[in-house]
Amino acid sequence: MVGAIFLFPINFNHVYFFLLYLVIFWEAIAFYNHFYEVQRHTRLFQIVALLLRQFVLLAFALYAYIGFFKQPNISRLALGEYLISVFLLVSFFKILTFFLLNRYRAVLGGNLRNVIVLGNTEKARQLIKIFNTKLHLGYKFKKQFTVKDDEFSLKKCFDYIIENEINEIYFSVAALSNKQINKLIDFADNNLKELKFIPDNKDIYSRKLKYEYYDYIPILSMRDIPIQEPVNKFAKRAFDIIFSSCVIIFLLSWLTPILAIIIRLESKGPIFFKQSRNGFNYKEFDCYKFRSMTPNDDANEQQATKGDMRITKVGAFIRKTSIDELPQFFNVLFGDMSVVGPRPHMVKHTNMYAERIDKFMVRHFVKPGITGLAQTSGFRGEIETDKDIVNRVKYDIFYIENWSLLLDLKIVIQTFLNAVKGEEKAY
């Protein structure tokens, strides 16, 4: 789109300034218009509507440039030809991608989501028909459950979901009691399953719900996660790459050799400490830190406590100032972590809390972070009681459901201020 501007005799006074203006407005309009948010159940006319809205708004922005920046030499006709040409080009590739993805799902059976349906209502049967006939949507219908008012039938459904790696659960509100719905919600949250329901006139919970259409069937998602939207995912990843690169280049490049010497002078052992932790979708990854303890066999089992004899003198300082966490910016750059997100725990502790703490697994719907809302809200460091981890989970879930780039920036700034003034549980 940017390169094509040179093919038209538009007569710019300041071509690179105009290109910057074009890119900024394109991205701003795309963000407002949800231009990149094309889901598997999005229909062709919705994509065409997106394209028309995007380019109509862009046309207003570009022609406003002429008057606002007083550019009398710009050819209005050439600018119009450019807009039409780019509209046709972008439309061709966007629609082509849409059709290729549909064919990939329908013919080759790729990019599939395993789904089940709970309930035997008319809308549930219609939804199953859509799954079975509209293969381009990429939903592989596995089984329909008619759940009775007893514990056994619901447990049978849960076992099937785990054993058959079901990705999404659809249920009719009319088919389940409120008690069963609550159990289904808890099960989905604790096992990283997406839960969506087919609405009717029954009273439902006052939650943040996402309303979508699959063909003509209305579907509500129980949890809307802003970070999963394509534009937000791109913005967060771009922020992570830029921020982590700056820290690595301008801070770690000279700080690492100095710390390496100091750490090795005080105690023998590696400069970096590597520990397996659970990240996005519960997958394990190696989390890096500057070593702050003497090498010991309990490092992967026992959390640091106040007055811990394993902590070295330099280790106490870098833990107090959070300098020991800086190597995790490499984890961010590699894509295992984000700058901001729920803090990852040791694998042993994660498994323990997953069984003991309700909705603990919801934290793994997003990448873990070097810092997070829970940490800046007073819940960092040692977990002394279940209340500590329960409150941490509450803040993490709030962050997941209410993410914004501004919230990330606020958390980063607050983390820096906390590191400067010191925190009570930073040991």
Automatic annotation (TrEMBL):
InterPro entries cross-referenced by the UniProt entry: Bact_transf, EPS_sugar_tfrase, Undecaprenyl-P_gluc_Ptfrase
Spell out where the chain crosses the membrane. Answer: 15-32, 44-66, 82-101, 241-263
Coiled coil segments of this chain: none
What is the protein name for this chain?
Answer: Undecaprenyl-phosphate glucose phosphotransferase
Q: Which family does it belong to?
A: Belongs to the bacterial sugar transferase family.
Membrane-topology descriptor: Multi-pass membrane protein
Tell me its EC number(s), please.
2.7.8.31
**A molecular-function term among this protein's GO annotations:** undecaprenyl-phosphate glucose phosphotransferase activity
Any keyword Transmembrane? yes
The uppermost taxa in this organism's lineage are: Bacteria, Pseudomonadati, Bacteroidota, Flavobacteriia, Flavobacteriales
Domain Bacterial sugar transferase: where?
236-420
Where in or outside the cell it occurs: the entry states: Membrane
